[in-house]
Inverse folding.
């Protein structure tokens, strides 16, 4: 099984605690998050544009999976030393986060994201940086 992710969703997943744009979105996000949490050897393919998270974005909300968010994808990939097309395990990607990021990087990178203020993504980076496990989704 390979999960396809765009750049910034590598970090969103670290901060996923069950909040999201709709029930369907959360069902999909929880399935991805729990797969990665429980099977960290799962292969991730880095892609450009809408990915396996975006596919559950609610059709009745303003679409934001194209446009300005590509800049955030690029910034995150650059920070992690990644480019589109790379395939690595989730565990290896978390190791990159641990080597290259500190929690404060979230507020520097994610300046327009409505979820940033909750602090969960910075917390997720901190957990990974300390080699600690991510909590169960919704815990
Ligand atoms: S602050 Fe927003 S864009 Fe940044 S990692 Fe968290 S959810 Fe993703």
């Amino acid at each position: 099984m390979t999960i396809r992710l765009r750049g910034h969703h590598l970090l969103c997943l670290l901060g996923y605690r069950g909040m999201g744009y709709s029930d369907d979105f959360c069902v999909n996000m929880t399935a991805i998050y729990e797969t990665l949490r429980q099977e960290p050897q799962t292969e991730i393919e880095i892609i450009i544009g809408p990915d396996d998270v975006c596919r559950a974005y609610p059709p009745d909300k303003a679409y934001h999976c194209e446009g300005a968010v590509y800049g955030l994808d690029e910034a995150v990939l650059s920070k992690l030393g990644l480019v589109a097309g790379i395939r690595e395990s989730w565990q290896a990607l978390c190791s990159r986060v641990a080597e290259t990021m500190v929690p404060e990087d979230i507020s520097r990178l994610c300046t327009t994201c409505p979820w940033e203020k909750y602090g969960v993504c910075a917390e997720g980076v901190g957990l990974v940086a300390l080699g600690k496990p991510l909590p169960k989704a919704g815990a």
Q: What stands out?
A: Helices lie at 9-14, 23-38, 69-80, 90-100, 105-109, 120-129. The radius of gyration is 14 Å. The chain is about 45% helix and 10% strand. Residues 2-129 form one domain.
